[in-house]
Design a protein that fits this description.
Layout: H1 4-8, H2 14-20, H3 29-35, E1 48-53, H4 61-73, E2 78-83, H5 93-111, H6 114-126
Parallel strand pairs: 1-2
């Protein structure tokens, strides 16, 4: 969920939002504003992989697109993996393979050998 207020009316499961935010956006707007991630977009810095399925009725695809677009506009390293034929869970075997490859590649890109790279940079900086 990127914008809690706009997401409220697009889910098939309103109970979660009403419980989490202690009411509807028109009854408790302050709670939605306080906890909605879009309010803090200027602080986003963490590389982010956004994954969304068009047939996700729990969270409309527009929420994933808003997040991805915001990350791109703010210069945060980001990538979006979109499945037009999947819902909240990726269930088709070929899509599952792509999901795992993309997630593993993303994690490797941002975490693998970070200690070695940092150490190498420090060593290069101190050698004459």
């Amino acid at each position: 969920m990127f914008n809690a207020e706009s997401a409220w009316g697009t889910t098939e499961e309103l109970w979660f939002n009403d419980w989490e935010f202690k009411g509807t956006p028109y009854d408790n707007r302050a709670m939605y504003e306080k906890w909605s991630p879009h309010q803090y977009a200027k602080n986003f810095k963490t590389p982010t992989l956004v994954i969304h399925g068009q047939r996700d009725y729990r969270l409309d695809v527009s929420e994933g697109l808003q997040l991805f677009t915001t990350l791109q506009m703010e210069g945060v390293p980001s990538k979006m993996l979109y499945f037009p034929d999947e819902g909240h869970w990726v269930l088709k075997p070929q899509n599952s393979q792509l999901w795992y490859k993309t997630v593993n590649d993303w994690v490797d890109q941002w975490t693998k050998d970070q200690g070695t790279k940092d150490q190498g940079t420090k060593d290069q900086g101190t050698k004459k």
